[in-house]
Specification:
- It is a single chain.
- The protein has 573 residues and is of the alpha/beta class.
- It has two domains: 263 residues, Up-down Bundle (ABC transporter transmembrane region fold), CATH 1.20.1560.10; 151 residues, Rossmann fold (3-Layer(aba) Sandwich).
- 64% of the residues lie in helices and 10% in strands.
- The chain has 21 helices and ten strands.
- A six-stranded mixed beta sheet has the order 6-7-8-3-9-10, sandwiched between helices. Strands 2-1-4-5 form a four-stranded antiparallel beta sheet, covered by helices on one side.
- A hairpin with an 8-residue loop joins strand 1 and strand 2.
- Helix 2 packs antiparallel against helix 12 and helix 3 packs antiparallel against helix 5.
């Protein structure tokens, strides 16, 4: 609840004005039955038609004020709910953008998507309803009881007798509702994950004819969500019939007692009619209060989920301000680095190596050997469990995130292309000129792709689906080259290229980047790294060989086996 109040606080003045209008409108609603009672009991018996018209006109004025006030206040409430939720959604998206890779793993992407969409929508609905009914419903409820008590104390006691039962009902229903809505949102996360996976893997699903199995998987998740929604809805739905029963039983009692009092001359007909009107007002107000509590259960559950993300502590912060490069230090150095994703078995175990500035480092090994994990640690997507990762002799923990990111240009095998122009995908918000973009595309062998598509303004679909695998990789490589980075990281980024294009790419890298840029190439192809200054051979998270291509052919059995299977063990291209 504190989270919601935090985002509503900037609009407190507008909300106060809206509540004031609601207050005036509610008072007008309470006046109308009282005027009706006066007309029936005091004015009609006198036969003064003019006074009847005047009283009727006053009732009309009260009705118009109430209607106009409600319309104005509701529009203001909708605007406040919209603006506050927009700010909340922006802050949540910003926080998600800066979560560490480990935190993203813990929350999971589908859950974060659900929190950013359905949870913020629930809060929007809650804040809007509270503003629309938060003043009006309690005022009509309490005001109606007070006015009714002034008019008919005996009948009001009959009505008030039902209130403790109403309060107890609302309390227990709401108390049970919050955990149910939490479970509902978790089930929503699960269904979002399946939809996301199927949308991204639709080609594979169709190619392998797995539509039916995916339908069954979705149906199971949907059934789970349906069950949780049903439980939550059933719990909340119990309140309406129970409250209706209690209030209508009270109304029956009021009519019976009222009839007895009219018959005995203790009450007048107009008072009984006005009292039943107040009873209807009180009934509707009580139902509105119930809806507020129902919506609050959903809103508070969603607010707690969003709060978990917004209050997630900053991870991998810069630990020191002293980060002056050490003269003569290697550009990249791993010193006895150990790391585990799950904290059980090391994925990287006691890895040490270094590479000088302007040199090329090649990393090769079987799938799952830890190649990409080395890159993640180098770029500080994760922090090491022990050991140090240094850039220019400075521990990456001591380098600010933006400063560290500016040192790298990176291209990954399964990198992402946005549904935007080729220009935007290569530039990536860096404000580069067309000349710089085209030069980078030339290095990446993407010039013919851009020319074939009609230029940099060609629009790509999401994930670059309107490009072939090789074309996508060349656009992604162009993005990495365009920044003119100090460290160029290519993580299996040429796997979709034919050997001729791959050879041209390697030649372009040697010609244009080798003297001023340190290159780190992760690959499955020996031909991509055989000319590297230093090669690491990874297996099961450990370095089992390092050196040059020629040296590894003699000293590392795994490297020799890979090389012989691909290029016959050749020493040169």
């Amino acid at each position: 609840m504190k989270l919601i109040l935090k985002y509503l606080r900037p609009y407190s003045g507008r909300m106060a004005f809206g509540f004031a209008i609601k207050f005036i409108g509610s008072i007008m609603d309470l006046f109308i039955p009282m005027l009706l009672s006066v007309i029936i009991d005091d004015i009609v018996p006198t036969g003064k038609v003019r006074e009847i018209y005047l009283a009727g006109l006053l009732m009309l004025v009260c009705s118009l004020i109430a209607i106009a006030g409600n319309i104005i206040a509701n529009r203001m409430a909708a605007r406040v709910a919209r603006n506050s939720t927009e700010k909340l959604r922006n802050d949540l998206f910003s926080k998600i953008s800066y979560l560490s890779a480990r935190q993203l793993d813990e929350f999971t992407i589908p859950s974060l998507e659900s929190r950013l969409t359905s949870d913020t929508y629930n809060i929007h609905q809650f804040t809007g309803m509270v503003q629309r009914l938060g003043v009006r419903a309690p005022l009509l409820l309490l005001g109606g009881i007070i006015v009714a008590f002034i008019m008919e104390p005996v009948l009001t006691l009959v009505l008030v007798g039902t209130l403790p039962l109403i309060v107890i009902t609302v309390f227990f229903v709401t108390k049970k509702g919050i955990p149910l809505y939490n479970r509902q949102q978790v089930a929503t996360d699960g269904m979002t994950r399946i939809v996301r996976e199927d949308a991204q893997g639709i080609r594979v699903i169709k190619a392998l004819g797995r539509e039916e199995s995916e339908k069954d998987r979705f149906a199971e998740s949907n059934a789970t969500l349906n069950a949780t929604e049903k439980a939550a809805a059933f719990n909340m739905a119990k309140s309406s019939p129970i409250l209706n029963l209690l209030l209508n039983l009270g109304l029956v009692a009021v009519i019976i007692v009222g009839a007895i009092r009219v018959n005995s001359g203790e009450s007048q007909v107009g008072e009984i009619i006005a009292f039943t009107s107040y009873f209807t007002i009180i009934l509707n107000a009580a139902m509105s209060v119930t809806r507020i509590f129902i919506m609050s259960s959903r809103g508070i559950a969603s607010a707690n989920r969003i709060k978990e993300v917004l209050e997630c502590p900053a991870d991998m912060v810069c630990t020191e301000t002293d980060r002056v490069p050490v003269p003569g230090a290697p550009k990249i150095e791993f010193s006895h680095v150990t790391f585990s994703y799950n904290g059980i078995k090391p994925d990287i175990d006691d890895v040490s190596f270094s590479i000088e500035s302007g040199k090329t480092l090649g990393i090769i090994g079987p799938t799952g050997s830890g190649k990409t994990t080395l890159i993640a640690l180098l770029m500080r997507q994760y922090d090491t469990d022990s050991g140090e990762v240094l850039v220019d002799g400075v521990n990456v923990r001591n380098i600010g995130k933006d400063e560290l990111s500016e040192k790298f240009g990176a291209a990954f095998q399964n990198d992402f292309l946005f549904a935007d122009t080729i220009r935007t995908n290569i530039d990536f918000g860096r404000g580069l000129t067309d000349e710089e973009l085209l030069r980078a595309a030339g290095y990446a062998q993407a010039s013919e792709v851009i020319e074939g598509k009609g230029g940099l303004d060609y629009n790509l679909t999401i994930k670059g689906a309107n490009l072939s695998g090789g074309q996508k990789q060349r656009i992604i490589l162009s993005r990495a080259f365009a920044a003119d980075p100090e460290i160029l990281v290519l993580d299996d980024s040429s796997s979709a290229l034919d050997y001729a294009t791959d050879a041209k790419l390697r030649a372009a890298i040697r010609e244009n980047f080798s003297s001023r840029t340190t290159c780190v190439i992760v690959t499955q192809r020996v031909s991509s790294i055989m000319n590297a200054d230093h090669i690491l051979v990874m297996d099961d998270g450990k370095i089992i060989g390092q050196g040059t291509h020629a040296g590894l052919l003699e000293t590392c059995a795994l490297y020799r086996e890979i090389s012989q299977s691909q290029i016959g063990g050749a020493l040169l291209e």
